[in-house]
Specification:
Layout (H helix, E strand, L loop, with lengths): L1 E6 L2 E4 L4 E9 L4 E9 L8 E7 L5 E3 L7 E6 L4 E6 L8 E9 L3 E3 L3 E6 L1
Parallel strand pairs: 2-11
Antiparallel strand pairs: 1-3, 3-8, 4-5, 4-9, 5-6, 7-8, 9-10, 9-11
Length: 118
């Protein structure tokens, strides 16, 4: 099992920045990739992919909707993944979830709320 704990969310003004963290514990050696998703507040809004990073070589992928404003990084010594978000916009308001993909399982954290005020 892998446990994920997100932190770093909060309320920020438009144009501001936040750095989210996701700390993994448990069977972290089984993780191949870690990713961030978000789910906006609108009813029926689906969870949206934001970014991923591989545990081994640090290959990253960023969603087009946030490209240029978001970077993902990792610190394997701390089993932690970071999501740096800059130039935040109102449409970035969402609950951000960390996801870890293992050999035969996917794990999710409880999420951290990001609210961007205009």
């Amino acid at each position: 099992q892998v446990q994920l704990v997100e932190s770093g969310g909060g309320v920020v003004q438009a144009g501001g920045s936040l750095r989210l963290s996701c700390a993994a514990s448990g069977r972290t050696a089984s993780i191949y990739t870690m990713a961030w998703y978000r789910q906006g507040p609108a009813p029926g809004k689906e969870r949206e992919f934001v970014a991923f990073i591989t545990r081994t070589d640090g290959t990253t992928g960023i969603a087009d909707s946030v490209k240029g404003r978001v970077t993902i990084s990792r610190d394997n010594s701390k089993n932690t993944v970071y999501l740096q978000m800059n130039d935040l916009k109102a449409e970035d308001t969402a609950k951000y979830f960390c996801c870890a993909n293992g050999r035969a399982a996917q794990y999710w954290g409880q999420g951290t709320q990001v609210t961007v005020s205009s």
